[in-house]
Amino acid sequence: MRTTTKFYIDGAWVDPAEPRLHDVINPATEEPIAKISLGSAKDVDRAVAAARRAFPAWSESSRGERLALFKRILEVFTKRLPDLAQAISSEMGAPKNLAIHAQAASGLGHMGEMARVLESFPFEDEWNSTLIRREAVGVCALITPWNWPINQIACKVAPALAAGCTMVLKPSELAPLNAQIFAEILEEAGVPKGVFNLVNGDGPGVGVAMSSHPDVDMVSFTGSTRAGIEIARNAAPTVKRVSQELGGKSPNVILDDADLAAAVGAGVAAVMINSGQSCNAPARMLVPQSRHDEAAQIAKAEVETKWKVGVPTSEQTALGPLANAKQFEKVQRLIQKGIEEGAKVVTGGIGRPEGFNKGYFVRPTVFANVRADMTVAREEIFGPVITVMPYKDEAEAVRIANDTLYGLSSQVHSGDLARAHRVANKIRAGMVHLNGAPLDFGAPFGGYKQSGNGREWGRFGLEEFLEVKAVMGHKPAPAH
Questions:
Q1: Which sequence spans correspond to the domains of the chain?
Q2: Catalytic-residue membership of 279
Q3: CATH top-level class of 2-246+451-470
Q4: Which of 3, 306, 362, 400 has the greatest CB tally within 10 Å of its CB?
Q5: Distance between CA 145 and CA 149 in Å, rounded?
Q6: Which CATH superfamily is domain 251-434 in?
Q7: Which tens digits make up the pLDDT trace of 198-218?
Q8: CATH topology of 2-246+451-470 equal to that of 251-434?
Q9: What is the pLDDT of residues 147-188, one digit of tens each?
């Protein structure tokens, strides 16, 4: 079992101020695979002080210097991709192929996209006689989740570096090993001392200290809406910027002119990947009332033939376990709640799949005849669970789609692209995928309502880490 208790602070691997050992659990075996130490407010103070000292020099670095660092990071990141994939698979249960081609690869994708944005981003432009400057916001606290760990680390660290910010990262204590490797990547690439700092820990011990720290200028957080509210409260007394990507309960609106089989298949895939543990998963499948039963059967067939549960180490596995015991218990509770409230189980249900008596494996589940007032239609399940919901007409489909506290993502399927656009424009969400279109690393990622504020990815992500300064009179007034 690996023991890795040090933090990366001020360009060195250092011991925690007050060691607190914490086991990292393999969700497929329920056995510990590593020990880390949880940090404390003292570690946060040390890391923030290092970031504050490094800020003047890094914030004034040139575009060329930052691009040169990105080039080195991309080279080392590519070399360490297999290590990242292995760590992610073992600590949060991602199947082997998903860990390599999606989980680890997404981090590399964000770093590459930000390097492209940085090449031409306008840090200065003119408006009449005023110079508009975009300057680094300052020292940033980055708090990331366990479900897409290196994806979320990269899509925060990359824009912070490109903007000229310095930072302290707290990854999830449930999936910290990939973050350790990421810190090693930045160290080998030559990130300047104090620019990037890593402190492991939990929310109460480190997250609170980071979000309330008077020398932190910005908090970027990805996680639950409940935790996001607490972070905003902690940040409020110091009026720091808070950017949040929170929960979701995204709709998949399948219109009556769509190819039903293709639309249902795409919707099932978008939910099942990563065992349903994606904030943007379109878990509410809205289908015409007249084709509800047909859609439910298509979803059942898709799940049972294409989304087999297996151990993460097998290349044949499509669905691994849930990432941790708490998530396993939550998904079991919500599936049971769906049954109790009258939703029809088309496939799946409570308990582990056949052949599994250990590990946080769940049965991929499709519910039919789901009403908008049922718990499974309102709460974010964060597991491989789909709710098939009938609607009478397009207006009702839009109403049901928007009947949620969240507004992160959505899908619209239609044989008429103009119609799909029309419906997409009515959905209150930060993202809409038309006819199963994939994610775009250059497009803004973020949501409306209780799905958070601010945007990540590409140019929009970079802008979150910048302050805007107006320098008036930077040119002599024209002579009269």
A1: 2-246+451-470, 251-434
A2: yes
A3: alpha beta
A4: 362
A5: 6
A6: Aldehyde Dehydrogenase; Chain A, domain 2 (3.40.309.10)
A7: 999 999 999 999 999 999 999
A8: no
A9: 999 999 999 999 999 999 999 999 999 999 999 999 999 999
Specify whether 245 is catalytic: yes
Question: Which residue is associated with the tokens 């945007």?
Answer: 455
Residue 233 and residue 84: Cα distance in Å, rounded? 34
One of 91, 245, 302, 456 is an active-site residue; which one? 245
Q: Which two tokens stand for residue 58?
A: 């890094």
Q: From the candidates 140, 279, 380, 456, give the one annotated as an active-site residue.
A: 279
Model confidence pLDDT, tens digit, residues 314-364: 999 999 999 999 999 999 999 999 999 999 999 999 999 999 999 999 999
